[in-house]
Structure formats: structure tokens, C-alpha cells
Design goal:
single chain, about 950 residues, seven-stranded mixed beta sheet, six-stranded mixed beta sheet
Length: about 950
């Protein structure tokens, strides 16, 4: 379809206005049922079958923190929390209790967020065959609209939760960002709001103040219902009209206002330092108004800008990788700033003390593109890449998730962002790519030149010896570079083949079926390599690939482990064969294939994926990783520099102090457990890394290669041609179990750190080496974590208001040695830390002595079944399951077997398992407190 024809078509349709501020000429796809109820509320309903038998419910409020009065600072976010604490139809925790009975989990499937300009709630992955449940979800959204109870006791209980969320979120990045935002948002209300709010307000606001905000802004004309999933659109639309149409139109309509960020005549500079910050950053930015009408011309311009930004970032990446630089990373972006404004930024991550040098390098390359533009080669390469991407998207259109469509419809409601069907999007993008010219792209890029209303912001660790450049040094650098004549960007033509050898298909030694996986086959190639293919129809054009061989870095001497840890990364970023890394990426333009080598603790191997058309490219890459890896000294130096830069800022890192303490205690000070230190960096050696990689990837006969997805027997010839020609030896290796565990007994340690925002971080880890690994115990292990999570939600978060959230996670592993593990961690108020630790331990004791309530056990069982039903629809699940089967002899799980196991599990079973796992366990407890 011609671009001009698209324009004429949409002009005939006229403007569609769904947002108070924005308009679009693009209609919604015909698959979307959209309407406005008499009370002003809008709805968007769409049938989508990924995942199958699931539906997502979004409730979008076109109101956020920007609408708060000063005495309401933080109450938009507070109100979001209160939406889960009692409504007209769901008293107390009724929403969460009702949904969790159906396997819909709080946090994972039930969530919400508050921003400056909107508040959005979601209930996701709802089983859509249950019509009563669909109605119940709509009644939840109905109640969120205007029927929150906002009971006094619930408000008071939530104050503590909000305080602890404030404490958890106020890290160094947050604090420096807050300082910078006051300058970026200067002259607007945004400079006075930060969403989480003022603690003085949170602690002391009168109940009525929250209710007034709710009544004033949660009105139907500011709201939209979005329902996407495997549903009958006609039936759901009828129920939406009945349920949400019953909400009365307010007698007084409170008009939603929009805040504009004013243009500043003077350029500004802000330096934000923090003792706990771990990296430095420089940003040159300016804000600009968003277009109020999204039409064909604006879409063309936006996509032209997108092309220019991608090409500039490609150049930045190439520059960083191929040169000795003062910067670690450069980039440009055009991002959302507020409802009415966007922000263009040039971002620089400098090495320690190299602020002006790194900024100068980045701005010089930016200016080089400004003066000379991009090349036809660059544009053609990007066009090819984009066409391939959209072709793949069209081929796999039935695998686009409900959440994607829901979020697109959300943006349509809030800002009139156009929404296309996958076919319409594919048609539009190809029409655009066929007509867009290099001159057009260069022109829109030149228009992005920073001229006025500029902000240079610098964030950095607070370090007394560091002398930060003055503001005028940055402005002078810009002026000097802009006034100089720069040579155009040049690149070499890439003509060499990826694989130079003339390879021929080898004989296959053996072919066999794989029990438990329909149509899966194992082939033993002439060199001894094992190849397994498992055809599925889960995704129309996706092939997932992995390979493994036993050994990993367990076979390396402890002194060589730092080099072993980076060996695969050095190869990955050095390129392959005749191509350095950046040239290889160019050579692979238009190919949908990626492969990455790894050397892990017990295994080495590959992970990757491709579509059918690019399978040969994937195989060529694997062949080259075996036969022609590169070990570039510049790449090695850059990896070493990254570590050094991270280490330079480590002394003030509370997170590193905590993680290092936990790491050494969990491994009982094993010398094989290297921490990031100067000794680690000194131990890095390129020759050692090369030797280890070469040893690990020298014998294809000791590897098993797995392909899952759009793969068939017809592909074996190509697979055999490349993988069958990799040299091998008649030997098999295994990993070494170094028996690294925590110390027997109970270990406790408290560390004290200087903190800007005082908090206590609690970490508890229980470990038992005597638990038998089997399917039932694996499920019981998971149930322990779910039980504790629910208990801590009730006790630590809701009753005590002591933490924003407690994470409790279990794992039962089989290799290298059977091991049960339970980890619990959370941040909390320092004044409550000791009391909360007692509660945590009391709950650990409680789950060993009391039976889990029958309703809670049933909720967990339903969640397990629901999660399994979702997982089995993904190729990723089957690749992992197949790997476990062929590597560990772990038979696959089907739904009937799962249900049978679950039906046999009683409260007594869970208590007995928990007692066996925890009563004789070893443990580590670490507390990090403020000095």
C-alpha cells in the first residue's frame, strides 16, 4: 500500500479524539471494540489468543501525582495501594483472596503503578474459560472506579507500608535523579512532585484529604476499561455496558488539567553527587512539546527520527568497541518526559575522572553525524534489519501477548498513540521504508541539534579527590566541536564469506527416538556429537537452540577462575573468523540468528535462536565459535576496564558490602569464590582465558546440541554439514563437584555501613543437603516459599507495616549434589529490625509445627496448575525440559501427572517436608545496619 494512499484514506476519516489533549487520524483496528459509556468512561475490548485461555484486565486512570495539592503529596500513589484494601464488593483483602483462589497471584498477576500523569491497575493471566471469574474481575475494576471503602484502620495500616517503600526506593540513583529532575522540570509542578510523596504528608494526612482526592479525580470521564484476551468480545462488551454503565455520571465534572514544562531562556547545569552512587553519568538534554495530532506526516517524521537515532547509536557502539576511549558508553534517546513533553538526550558514561574527555568524544561523533549526515550503506542496512524484524513479527503474530495490546490501547486512551493490527503495521512500515530517503533522515536528525533550553546534568559518586569540570568547560567543548570541520564517517566494504571452508555433509552414526517427546529424535554424528531436534507448533517461525558439555569452570584451577569467568565474553565481543565484532554485526544484517557461548560452573555450551530462514547462519556461527574464535586484546582490555571502573566506586557501595558478606558466608570462605577486588582484576589474563576457552570448546564429540521449535528432519543435512565437521576426540569429560556449601551450624553476622537513608537489610539462608530430589519434593519445596510469602505479606507488611515486601524463595536442586535452599530477604525500618527478624524466625518455626490452612493450600495448588498451563505453551519450557531429560534423566511432567501429584499432597505432607528441610538445616543470617 502506498504511503500517499494511506494519508488520503485517513484524512477522509477525520480526527479521532480519545484523549482530552491529543488526537489521531488513525482508526483503531477493526478487532477492537471501543466505545464511550453515558457516564464518560471509555472501554477497549479485543480478542487475542496468546496466551490461550487467558485474559488481561487493565483499568487506566488518566490521573496521577501531578494533580495533587501540596497537602496531598504522595496520595495518588497511596490511593493505588488502598485499591487492594477493601471495596464495595470485596471487603478487606477480598480482591486478592478471590483471585488467588483461581491461581491469579498478587504481585505477579495483580499489580498497579502510579506515575506523574496516570495510574494504571492490572489483573493479568486470568483463566478466561471461567465466566464467573471474568465477571468478578470486571466488578473489581468497577469498584476501583469509585467504590473504594478507604476505611480509617486500613489507611493507618498502609502508612507503614508506604514508609518502607519510600525507604527501599531511596537509593543513590533515586536521590541523584531527584536533584536533577528539579532542574529539568524547573518552573513546573513536576519539580515539586516525585510520586512516592512527602513522608510528613504520608504520616499525618487526615483521612478526608485522601477521600477528597479520590472523589475529585477518580471520575468516569478520566477512566478506561481495557480487556484483552481469549474472550468473546460481544459478550464482554455487553457486560461492560451493564456493569460500568451503572456507575453514575458525576454531578460535578472536575476537568483534568495538564502541566506544561516552561521553556527556559538560560541553559542550565546541575551536578548531583552521592556517596553511595556506583557510576557516573553525563547528559545533555532539552525538552520539546509532543505533537498534539498523530497523523501520517507526524508518523513519518517520528519514524525518520527513529532511524536516525538507531544509526547514531550504532556508530556510538562501534566507536566505543573499536577505540581507546575515555567513555564506557555513549547513546542518544528521545523519551517521554511528561504528558505534554518529551526529552532528547545525549548520554555519556565516563571512566573515573574522565568527565570532559568522555563528553568531548561523544559530542564529536554526534557532531560528525550532524555535519556530514549518515551514509546510504548505514540506512540500507537498517532498513533491511527493520524489514526482517517486522517480517518475523508478522510470521509470529499469534504469539503477541495480551499485555502488549493492553498497553498499546492504554497509550491510545492517554495520548492517542496510533494502534495498528500486525498486518496493518507490517504494511505501513514497508510502505514507509520503500519511500523514505537518506536526505529526509539526515534532515530530521539535523533538526535535533541542541540549541537552547539545554540542561547538562552530571551524576557522580561523592569523592573528595575528584575535581569535577565547571559548567563552562562543557559549553566550551560544544562550541569548539561545533565550529570545527569534521571528516565524514567511513567504513570498509564487507565481502568475505562467514565460513571459508568448503564443508560437506558427513555420515550419521545413529538415529533414535526420544521417549516422552513426540517426534523428537537424537542423531549421533560422525564426530560423536549428539544432535536432538524436537519439532513443535508453539511458534510458527521460532527455533530455540542450546548446547552443553560437562566440565565448565569446575575443571579450572582456582587461580584461573577470574580468566575462566570472562573467557566466553572475550570471544563473544571479539568477533569471529575474519570479522571483528562490529563488522560481524553488519555482516549479519537481515539475519534472524544469534548465538552466545558460555562457560558456567558445571557446563560450557551455547544459547541461541533463529527463524527457519536463518538456521544456516546460526549453524555457521556455532561452527566459527569452535573453529575460528577471536581473542582480541582490545576487547580484553575493555572488559578489564569495566571491572576496574566498577571496583573504583565499590568502597562506598552498601550493596556490594552486603553481597560480598553473603557470598563468603554461603561458600564458607571457599578460595574458589572470587569477589570483585584488585586481586581479581590482577588475575585476569588473556592467554589464560584463551587457553581455557580453547580447551572447553575443542571437542564437539562431547557436546549435545538441541533444537526446539520450527525444526524438522529436513534440517538435519544442514545441521550435520556444519556441526558434523567440527573436530572431536574420543574422550568424555565430567564436571568436578567441589562441595562448596555454607558452614555447618548457624552463622550470624551484622555489618554497619554509612547510609544517606538509614535502613536495615535482613538476609536469611537455610541449606539442607539431605533432602531427596524428586518431583513431589520439588513441588513441596515451591509450596514452602509460597506459604511463607503469604504469611510474611500478612504479618511483616500488613500487620506490622515493617517492610514494603519480603522475598522468600526456595530451590531444590539435584546437581552437583542434592540441596534444599530457602532464602529470605527484605529492607525495613531500623527501629523495627530486631522485632521483625523475630517474626521471620517465628514464621519459619510455625510452618514446621502447624498445618497450612486448607484454603491456602488449595490456592497454591491452583497457582501451580495455572503456571504450568501457561509455561507449556512456550518453546523455552520444552527446551529446558528436554535438556533436563537428556542431561539428568529427569522425565517430563504432563498435566495429568501434575494433578495426580498435587492431589496426593496434604497439609501434613507439607509440614513434614518443611520440618525435614528446615529442622536440621544449616543457616546464614546477615544484617546490614546503618552506622
Amino acid at each position: 500500500m502506498k504511503t500517499k494512499l494511506i494519508l488520503a484514506h485517513f484524512l477522509l476519516l477525520g480526527l479521532s479524539q480519545v484523549s482530552a489533549q491529543f488526537k489521531t487520524t488513525f482508526p483503531l483496528p477493526k478487532e477492537v471494540a471501543h466505545g464511550t459509556l453515558p457516564n464518560g468512561m471509555q472501554y477497549f475490548i479485543m480478542h487475542n489468543e496468546w496466551p490461550k485461555d487467558r485474559a488481561d484486565f487493565y483499568f487506566v486512570q488518566n490521573v496521577g501525582a501531578i494533580l495533587e495539592n501540596d497537602d496531598q503529596d504522595g496520595l495518588a500513589h497511596f490511593l493505588e495501594h488502598m485499591a487492594f484494601n477493601g471495596t464495595e464488593h470485596f471487603k478487606g483483602k477480598g480482591i486478592i483472596n478471590m483471585l488467588e483462589k483461581q491461581g491469579v497471584s498478587f504481585g505477579k498477576d495483580i499489580n498497579a503503578y502510579t506515575a506523574y500523569d496516570e495510574t494504571v491497575y492490572n489483573i493479568s493471566n486470568v483463566p478466561s474459560q471461567n465466566k464467573t471469574l471474568l465477571d468478578s474481575c470486571m466488578y473489581v475494576l468497577h469498584d476501583w472506579s469509585g467504590s473504594l471503602l478507604l476505611a480509617n484502620n486500613e489507611i493507618d495500616a498502609e502508612r507503614g507500608v508506604i514508609r518502607e517503600e519510600w525507604r527501599t526506593r531511596r537509593n543513590a540513583d533515586y536521590r541523584t535523579g531527584e536533584k536533577i529532575n528539579k532542574v529539568v522540570f524547573e518552573g513546573s509542578k513536576y519539580a515539586k512532585r516525585n510520586v512516592i510523596g512527602d513522608l510528613n504528608v504520608i504520616n499525618n494526612f487526615k483521612y478526608q484529604v485522601l477521600r477528597e482526592y479520590y472523589k475529585k479525580w477518580y471520575q468516569p470521564q478520566n477512566q478506561a476499561v481495557v480487556i484483552v484476551g481469549d474472550i468473546d468480545v460481544t459478550v464482554i462488551e455487553k457486560r461492560v455496558k451493564e456493569i460500568f454503565g451503572s456507575i453514575p455520571k458525576p454531578k460535578k465534572i472536575n476537568k483534568r488539567t495538564y502541566e506544561k514544562i516552561p521553556f527556559q531562556k538560560e541553559n542550565r547545569y546541575v551536578l548531583a553527587t552521592d556517596k553511595e552512587l556506583q557510576r557516573s553519568g553525563i547528559s545533555l538534554s532539552y525538552n520539546k512539546p509532543k505533537p498534539l495530532v498523530q497523523d501520517q506526516a507526524e508518523m513519518n517524521k517520528s519514524m525518520q527520527e527513529n532511524l536516525a537515532l538507531q544509526m547514531m547509536n550504532n556508530r556510538f557502539n562501534e566507536y566505543i568497541i573499536n577505540n581507546e576511549t575515555a567513555g564506557l558508553a555513549f547513546g542518544i534517546s528521545n523519551e517521554n518526559l511528561s504528558r505534554l513533553d518529551s526529552k532528547f538526550s545525549l548520554n555519556v558514561t565516563p571512566k573515573k575522572g574522565k568527565f570532559i574527555e568522555a563528553f568531548t568524544e561523544a559530542y564529536r561523533e554526534f557532531e560528525r553525524a550532524m555535519q556530514n549526515g549518515f551514509t546510504q550503506q548505514e540506512l540500507d542496512r537498517l532498513k533491511t534489519k527493520m524489514r526482517t524484524s517486522y517480517d518475523n513479527r508478522l510470521a509470529n503474530k499469534d504469539k503477541i501477548r495480551n499485555s502488549y495490546w493492553a498497553e498499546q490501547l492504554q497509550l491510545y486512551f492517554l495520548e492517542s498513540n496510533p494502534v495498528f493490527s500486525v498486518e496493518g503495521e507490517h504494511e505501513w512500515i514497508n510502505a514507509f521504508l520503500n519511500t523514505v530517503t537518506l536526505d529526509q533522515v539526515n534532515a530530521v536528525f539535523k533538526a535535533l541539534q541542541p540549541k537552547d533550553n539545554l540542561v547538562i546534568s552530571v551524576s557522580a559518586p561523592e569523592d573528595a579527590p575528584t575535581k569535577f569540570p565547571e559548567a563552562n568547560e562543557y559549553w566550551n567543548a560544544i562550541k569548539t566541536i561545533t565550529n570545527s570541520k569534521l571528516e565524514p564517517y567511513k567504513e570498509e566494504e564487507l565481502t568475505a564469506s562467514l565460513v571459508k571452508e568448503e564443508l560437506k555433509e558427513k555420515a550419521i552414526r545413529k538415529t533414535e527416538e526420544i521417549k516422552g517427546f513426540e517426534n523428537a529424535k537424537r542423531y549421533t554424528l560422525a564426530n560423536g556429537a549428539k544432535v536432538i531436534i524436537y519439532p513443535t507448533t508453539l511458534s510458527k517461525d521460532q527455533i530455540l537452540f542450546s548446547a552443553y558439555s560437562a566440565g565448565g569452570n569446575s575443571l579450572s584451577d582456582w587461580k584461573d577462575l577470574p580468566s575462566a569467568q570472562i573467557a566466553a565474553a572475550v570471544v563473544s565481543y571479539s568477533g569471529l573468523g575474519d570479522y571483528k565484532f562490529t563488522d560481524l554485526k553488519k555482516k549479519l544484517t537481515g539475519k534472524t540468528a544469534n548465538v552466545s557461548p558460555y562457560i558456567g560452573g558445571l557446563y560450557e555450551g551455547f544459547n541461541g535462536s533463529s527463524n527457519k530462514e536463518s538456521l544456516t547462519t546460526l549453524l555457521q556461527l556455532v561452527y566459527l565459535y569452535f573453529q575460528h574464535p577471536r581473542f582480541d586484546s582490545n576487547t580484553f582490555d575493555k572488559i578489564k576496564e569495566q571491572y576496574q571502573n566498577k571496583l573504583n566506586n565499590a568502597p562506598n557501595s552498601n550493596e556490594k558490602a552486603l553481597s560480598d558478606t553473603i557470598s563468603v558466608l554461603n561458600t564458607n570462605y571457599s578460595k574458589r569464590n572470587w569477589l570483585l577486588s584488585q586481586d581479581f582484576i590482577s588475575a585476569l589474563d588473556l592467554n589464560t582465558a584463551k587457553k581455557i576457552y580453547t580447551e572447553r570448546f575443542s571437542n564437539a564429540g562431547d557436546f549435545t546440541f538441541l533444537f526446539v521449535g520450527n525444526i524438522s528432519e529436513n534440517d538435519i543435512a544442514a545441521i550435520n554439514t556444519y556441526l558434523g565437521n567440527i573436530p572431536s576426540e574420543e574422550k568424555t569429560e565430567n564436571y568436578v563437584d567441589h562441595k562448596i556449601f555454607m558452614k555447618d551450624g548457624k552463622v550470624e553476622k551484622t555489618i554497619f555501613r554509612t547510609m544517606d537513608t538509614p535502613k536495615t537489610t535482613v538476609y536469611l539462608h537455610f541449606e539442607n543437603r539431605d533432602i531427596v530430589y524428586n518431583k513431589k519434593n520439588k513441588i513441596l519445596s515451591y509450596m514452602v516459599s509460597e506459604w511463607l510469602t503469604k504469611r510474611y505479606l500478612e504479618t511483616i507488611r500488613e500487620e506490622e507495616g515493617g517492610s514494603y515486601g519480603v522475598h522468600a524463595g526456595t530451590n531444590l536442586s539435584q546437581f552437583p549434589s542434592p540441596l534444599f535452599s530457602l532464602e529470605i530477604n527484605f529492607d525495613c525500618n531500623p527501629d523495627k529490625a530486631d522485632a521483625l527478624v523475630k517474626i521471620v524466625n517465628a514464621e519459619v518455626a510455625r510452618v514446621q509445627t502447624e498445618n497450612i490452612p486448607a484454603n491456602m493450600l488449595e490456592d497454591i495448588k491452583q497457582s501451580i496448575i495455572k503456571n504450568y498451563q501457561e509455561q507449556i505453551k512456550e518453546n523455552t519450557y520444552w527446551l529446558n525440559t528436554l535438556t533436563s531429560y537428556v542431561r539428568n534423566d529427569e522425565s517430563p511432567l504432563d498435566i495429568e501427572l501434575l494433578k495426580n501429584i498435587l492431589s496426593t499432597i496434604t497439609a501434613k505432607d507439607l509440614k513434614e517436608f518443611t520440618t525435614n528441610a528446615l529442622k536440621k538445616s544449616n543457616s546464614v543470617q546477615v544484617l546490614m545496619k546503618a552506622k
